[in-house]
Amino acid sequence: MSKAITIAQAQRYDAHTINDIGIPSMVLMERAALATFNNLLNDDYDLTRVVVVAATGNNGGDGIAVARLLKIRGINVSIYLLGNPDKASEQTQQQLKIARYYQIPFTTELNDVINATTIIDAIFGVGLSREVTGDFAAAINAINATDASTVAIDVPSGINADTGATLGVAVVADSTTTMAYNKIGLLTVNGKHHAGTVHIADIGVYAQDHVESIK
Ligand SMILES: NC(=O)C1=CN([C@@H]2O[C@H](COP(=O)(O)OP(=O)(O)OC[C@H]3O[C@@H](n4cnc5c(N)ncnc54)[C@H](O)[C@@H]3O)[C@@H](O)[C@H]2O)[C@@H](O)CC1
Ligand SMILES: [K+]
What residues does K(+) bind to (predicted)? Predict the structure, then answer.
């Protein structure tokens, strides 16, 4: 799994897996969350106070699922949510509902982000489509100003996964768990600087179906 893909390929492979093969989107999200969670534990981050900074796309849903996996382990975790939850993607709305069931605290204080020992960046992934401004930019600036370790999900938020360019402002992560394949933008100088150590997670999304190997 050493190849790197574009945003369009990532979106096409995801859609094929969900719509043609029939693996539900939530299953992929759970696998993405579990892979991120396992890397978080294996890399030995200080999990004394974890804050997941999530927006309302599917990247945010991955992060909210990670918060639940941490909470079930007894780890002190809270969620800083950006954007309007009523407009969240279907999967992310479901993850928010599950997070409420598990009574994961939501914080609106950037200070809680600043005082975290480890931050999970689940703001934007391959769906980033424009310059980052407003509350999103303020959160990313706060993440970058702390001493906390930062773990990005799929793509460091604010980085264009095709070009590696910073769209306004972007998270500087210690590590990034990226889904299915590396992204070509993360191989650029700027992309590498923002992604840190890249872990590639097998979530069941492939460029080829491998049907021949199971005959
Ligand atoms: N499609 C799938 O089934 C899977 C998706 N996964 C995750 O989902 C991500 C892609 O999810 P999405 O396609 O929902 O995209 P994202 O969650 O990356 O972001 C899209 C959302 O952000 C908004 N947005 C884009 N740029 C913005 C900006 N500059 N300021 C404010 N809002 C902005 C868009 O309007 C949209 O609501 C992947 O990177 C990955 O983390 C994984 O869960 C695996 C499976
Ligand atoms: K991210």
Answer: 59, 121, 157
